[in-house]
Structures
1.
Amino acid sequence: MADLNKRNDIPWRALTMVGALLLIWVIFSFTTEGTFLSPRNLSLLLRQMSVTSILAVGMVLVIVAGQIDLSVGAMTGFLGAISAILFVNHGWPLWATIAVTVLCGAILGHIQGHLVTWFNIPAFIVTLGGMLVYQGCLLGFTGGVAISPSPDYLFMGQAFIPPMLGWGLAGFISLFFIYRAKAPGNRLRWSALVVLVLGLTAVMNAYEGIPFPVLIMLVLAMIFSITANQTPFGRHLYAIGGNKEAAFYSGINIQQHLVLVFTLMGALCGVAGIVLTARVGAASSDAGRMMELDAIAAAVIGGTSLMGGRGTVWGALLGALIMASLDNGMSLMNTEAFWQPIIKGSILIVAVALDMMGRKGKN
Amino acid sequence: MSLLELKNITKDFPGVRALDGVSFDLQKGEVHALCGENGAGKSTLIKILCGYYPSGSFGGEILFNNQPVHFKSLKDSEEKGIALIAQELALVPDLSVAENLLLGRWPLKKGLIQWKKVREEARQALEWVGLDVSLDTPVRELGVGQQQMIEIAKALLKKAEILVLDEPTAALTEADVQRLFALLRQLKAKGLSAVYISHRLEEVEQMADRVTVLRDGKSIITAPMAQLTRDKIISHMVGREVKNLYPRPTAAIGETLLTVQHFSVEDPANPGRYVVKDVSFEVKRGEILGVAGLMGSGRTALLSSLFGAARGKATGSLIVQGKALSLFSSPEKAIEAGVALVSEDRKKYGLILEESVQENLVLASLKHLVKRGFLNHAAIQSEAETQVKAMRVKTANLEVWINKLSGGNQQKVVLGKWLMTQPKVLFLDEPTRGIDVGAKAEIYELMGQLAAQGLGIVLVSSDLPEILGLSHRVLVLNQGRMTAQMSAAEATPEKVLAAAATIKTNFEL
């Protein structure tokens, strides 16, 4: 019984998702005669998921706290445009452009957080309004014209880590994991991570190296995962999403926590905006459109409960990878474009249905 | 001949046998009480009886009028006239009385609801239970006691012959309880039968014709109430003799820990009216201060507002350990000052149900369990283990979800959570509501230990013997005002009740 009652059942659930991912990969590798699993395509796949993943990483925390943020797509587009304008039109240095863009995101998120907590407006409404506002701002600021920054800027979306440096990083991280694996208990888990890190590096280096946006994505995922699990702030978010009243009575300052989680989400939109602009090579007037839904879908497929209180950052990354794999694989197969949203939507619903069924069985 | 008979019922859950060969029968026109500690198997038995656990998922058989029946769902048992009045009432707050009564069984004509017929039937049902309320009142506006009557009226409309009442009085005032009992006696005279579950044994004594005691999934005894006493039932429930249920702590009483002066809280719904008005008291080291009062007298508002969780505007002054402080603006501030509150509704305000025992234990003190900004897992685990041992929480391990524990063990986790914040003053709001006798005794014992360690305790309870048995001093609230304060020696049930109910009360009706 003790096993049935374990808190997260992570291994079982995570394994199902990894299984689903592998199944999708196997199917695509057959239908594309192996092209899908070539290093070149896998590198592309990871780059394609990077922007959504950066957003999903923050979205997990927002949803865990029992909130939602519908503005992230529009905000990403808007902040990407701001960074392009600062860098191109005003000639700001890159570091200042990045800093100010991320700061702007944090401020916008902060305002939304305050609107949610001070006036008790549901986050759904605040961020739905925000989405429209940012869409308008994006159009107004760019005048509907795409702005293309110079290569100095574009490296953030398009550069690769030189293979030797990549191996160095991977080796360093592996050593840390091996050190952790010496402690009893989770040996298998840490060993698996070492294999994953080295495998990923090998595959990426077989093409041109680890893509820079993928590195950003992984670093942010690590930071947010640690925040979620290893800090009082993170655990408090789970408590707030699990039972707001109990959290309040336990002395948790709910307003402060919610404002901070929206602020972090906004800052991530800043990063995502820059990476997105750099990846596509220009800030356009419809950038980021519908990305909020991709981020939410990634989090949910990755096991985040929309009721709040449950979800993991790495799960969201896996969710984003599943979604990106579907997009990428279907494109390779030259499936007609209209099939992609149909398949993705169905997968989303099936994933949640399976989750609910699994949960029912436990009660 | 038995109306209903459960024979040799056995029910297994993964790893546990919840019921082990339990037999239970119900005669026509009798009230049969089902007693037992939480976890003894009462709820499981009821769920089998009502078809919640479908036929086939348990061993044994159910006979209805000597015919074997196989309930596949709640609906099947309903058709045989079995109606469950659950602890949490199943009414829709925003629908009217009439709509709630006929919900799901609308009289139709060509697919349209015949409102005239709805009102006729609803009026009839209200008459049966002797409730005088308007058919158009939203159920939200009724008192809990009245809502309970509506539930029973609804069951009667469904032609129920057997009422299954699960803790029907948990949220009722004494007056409502008596009204409910009068109704039950009346229905009994008309030939209805009832299965009655309650932790309040004095009610069982009043209402039951026969009593069945369950312990650890087995039926220990079935006997007419006339042959039993309250103490006998308790000893059957716990399996041993219970001597002194209320051990008043004998610790030396020390200096004043908390002084509250002229404390008032405005009613957030009606500005200008007060839920707590001009209350002053103090709690000393090692002392238990009992707060008595009827439901709605402001007991809960007093504690939660002092704790910084007030919904309305609060005024007054506060001295904690000799230091004058401003009123706490949030629970966060109260906790910092060394005050803790075990709230009346642990599921709503105390626990995160879908989380582990450990997460719940450390919830209020997580901020202090950090090393260089990150959680100190070793410290968290060892502190949580210490509390589980100290509170004697029965759990397989720290990772078990809290909603898998019994009510008593959940309450011990809540207490443990607050003790981890190292409070000086402990507010306990109905700390033993809905938990079994064994766990109650353990919680009383803990309160004694805590007082001996130098905590000051403020105890709010609807259970008068509990207040009188444990407190050093008793404070009585009546419509938000303090109407009496007396020492344990002076306090008698009569005096307390007189102070609690002297002014004509109108809050429940």
Note: Residues 254-280 of chain A form the longest helix (27 residues).
2.
Amino acid sequence: MRAAVHRYCADQCGFEARRDRTASRDGDAVAAQSRLHWQAFANMGWLGAALPPDVGGSGGSVLESAILFEELGRAIVREPLLPCIALAAQVIDKGGTAEQREKLLQPLVRGELLVALMHAEARAANGGRDSITAERCDATATYTLTGHKSVVPGGADVSLLLVSVPWPETPDLDGANGEARRNIFIVDAQADGVIRRDFPTLDGMRASEIVLRNVRVDESSLLGEWGQAGEALRYATEHAMLASCAEMVGAMDGLLWLTRDYLRQRRQYGVALSSLQALQHQLADLFAELELSRSMLYRGLSAFVGEEKATRSAAVAAAKTYIGRSGRRLGEAAIQLHGGMGMADEYKAGHYFKRLLTLAVLLGGLEPHQQ
Amino acid sequence: MNFDADPQDEAFRTEVRRFIAALSPEIVRGKPLGYTHSRPEREAWIRALNAQGWLVPHWSRAWGGRDWTAMRRHILHDETCAAGCPEVDRIATDLVGPIIQAFGSAAQQRRYLPGILSGTEFWCQGFSEPQAGSDLSLVGTVARREGERYIVSGRKLWTTQAHLADLMFALVRVKIGNELQQGLSFLLVDMRAGGISTRPVLTLDGGHHVNEVLLEEVSVPRENLIGAEGQGWTYVRALLESERSSAAGIPHTKRDLRRLEEFASSELRHGRTMMDDPVFRAKLEQLRDELHALEFLHLRVLSATERGPRAEALGCVLKFRGAQAYQRVSELMLETLGERSIEYVPDSQRSADEAGVAAAYLFRRSATIAAGTTEIQKNMIAALALEL
């Protein structure tokens, strides 16, 4: 699988193409290109790599995700695989009813349906409470969703949103399995009251700010059983965190060797920069960052597939924080070692760096995790 | 050396604040983080400062210098930066202006200095080239001598504000007949001369700050040479010293530290503000202390009471540690905003400080590269202070 992903990325997702598409003002052409890539991902089985066979997946686990995303990171692929495949698809797989899994995941694996998760966040403007709420109307058996999320990666590309809300509003009321009770609603991205502002992100990709203004959904829109979405949400979030760790490791790996090769060919003061011991030591530090990050990824993966819940969450959170910080450090140092070239937006190093920065702050940021 | 609080200095600080407050809001209206003032905005500010006699206090008295103390210069820069005033053309006032005064002919002084003082002529520095970065001895731009003119050909890269500049001071290699001179020469070039083309080089923040300048058979009068052919390096050495202290960006870092505190007081993480997070507070305090130390180092360098190679090395410390602090404050802003920092907002559309955080962080990666990389500063410290 690694070799296949690597080959496709090298042939079809080269850096020049990425750079041109990022700079392009022809949105339609870029979208058409994205659809072609997405169909190719589906045909090669990437979209279902970590989904079970009953929905058309190949039955792989988070390990297959890690392999896929490491290669995507190395090639800085700019399609919304992380929010759709590593996160939203996993939410549906773990939290959906048999019928919902079949109805949503089969077209998703075929590349015909894209989904993103819109998870409530605590906001200062909201008194520190979750920013999305659902209100039930017993008479009509419908729910009204209201709220706001400032960053939804992939939001511009999907036709369905999974809206995660606390239920009931008292967050300390735990469900049967010890998770805070949550519900997830499946919402048509085009539904009345879904107001979306798409924006470019640092890494040349897109995300959306989404406001829900009295969006009405009926009971069939509830994913899985009432109040039971917490566990699926946590599982999927951790799966996505590990996938993003793998993508960062892939990007770090690509950036390290790019930097090494640059120092080999750049000559100042009559010598190749790579012959200077001070710079060799800096590269050695970056190698240490890379391999410690990779080790931290392996630790997170091993905890995720094996251990019990508490240790698992802690190991995944630690991996995400560690690799995020390490990736930023490696990126900053790689830019420095490139000198002026590192600052040029038309050069590859900066694209790696900006993808690393973005991944580092998504899904739990650089600050110490406090779970 | 005495940096005790002087009542006269405090009176001067008040005077500066009054002066800024009295200016029209078009000149000093607070601009969001990462905002680049337009050239007309900068020209208006330069004129106002010059009318007050504050544009070039460090120049010779004959050209408007004021023999100010280091503290006074520091206060002026500190206050104008805190108020969000535009940048003057430091490439002109701090780099080429002093060189023209020290090494230029009387005619060159009369020709170029008034344009700097009136803000009508902006400058750019044509040093770096594709192959010559840290190592300027690799400069390959050639000025072929033909009668009373030089015919200049070459390629300059990373040239800050070349797209706004009227004039460039360039390092070139003079060629007489078939002979290429060993030493570099310091030549003033009119950016409107035929054969010059400027191409933007966008940086990581997506902004247009630097350029590639192509010179193709550009005809430059011989009278535009500063000093003697082949002696350019002697003049540049003096310039690099003052470039280092202005590149340290300390007043900017101070201003941004206040912005950071504002962000951190309103951003919630895990149910409390960032300011209430002890880990974040520790990082903030560490940066604040670093900045205090840098500020006094800056005063020591500006006052120039310490002499010799070791004192010169202080400027190198100031440059690289100052640049790191300037980066550090934007790193902490990025951490404070978390995932909301990943929105890319083109600079023309930034209305709030928040929108410029990522761009500022990205562009500031150049602070430890431009004007002498950190690695070069450390080499110089090793040579100058440590005698290695």
Note: Chain A is about 50% helix and 15% strand.
